[in-house]
Task: inverse folding
């Protein structure tokens, strides 16, 4: 076999590559990396996998339950009252009033059951209709709730509760005619809050956006001017 034919074989080609090509030493970092990769890894203890699985399951359960856990109760009494009233309003919007009593016929019964007497009450007009009235129990106090619906179908809830020690911060007050109620927002809802003697009064709706504020002010003025709650004796 000639030398050229011999060089075409696998053996000849290997000899030429080994003698003719230059050789370079591998960098120390590459050698260290190859040796580390080839080193056998210690296996985790047999009991560790079930523990990790249990921990992962617990974490998933916490993440699922977190949105429905009760929120921390506010330290501010005013915010606490508003949160309770907002929750009552949201319940009514979703499921309706527990007892849709008609006013003014139900006023004596409401005074007996709620502890709040209404010497006069806003009974609706061309903008707001009365949906119903019912006694409520919020913040460990009996009170009365009156539900209204406007011409666009939006619900409002008026609530009166005994609250002799409730203070309304000056910075939260808004001037509406001759009144200065506080405007408090919570969970996408807005509430007008004011005091009439020892009674705390709240008017709640979902009109929390700035574009709804003027209409919400008008609704407050209508309810406030025609409703007079006192503690029933």
Result:
């Amino acid at each position: 076999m000639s030398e050229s034919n011999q060089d075409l074989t696998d053996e000849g080609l290997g000899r030429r590559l080994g003698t003719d090509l230059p050789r370079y030493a591998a960098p120390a970092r590459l050698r260290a990396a190859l040796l580390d990769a080839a080193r056998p890894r210690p296996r985790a203890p047999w009991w560790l996998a079930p523990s990790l699985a249990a921990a992962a399951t617990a974490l998933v359960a916490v993440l699922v339950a977190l949105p429905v856990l009760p929120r921390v109760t506010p330290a501010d009494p005013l915010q606490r009252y508003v949160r309770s009233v907002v929750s009552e309003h949201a319940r009514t919007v979703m499921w309706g009033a527990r007892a849709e009593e008609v006013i003014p016929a139900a006023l004596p019964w409401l005074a007996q059951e709620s502890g709040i007497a209404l010497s006069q009450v806003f009974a609706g007009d061309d903008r707001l209709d009365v949906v119903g009235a019912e006694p409520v129990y919020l913040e460990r106090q009996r009170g009365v709730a009156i539900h209204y619906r406007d011409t666009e179908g939006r619900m409002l809830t008026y609530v009166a509760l005994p609250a002799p020690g409730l203070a309304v911060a000056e910075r939260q007050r808004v001037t509406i005619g001759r009144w200065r109620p506080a405007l408090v927002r919570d969970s996408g809802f807005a509430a007008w809050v004011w005091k009439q003697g020892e009674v705390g009064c709240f008017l709640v709706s979902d009109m929390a956006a700035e574009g709804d504020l003027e209409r919400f002010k008008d609704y407050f003025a209508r309810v406030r001017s025609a409703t007079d709650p006192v503690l029933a004796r």
DSSP finds seven helices and eight strands in the chain.
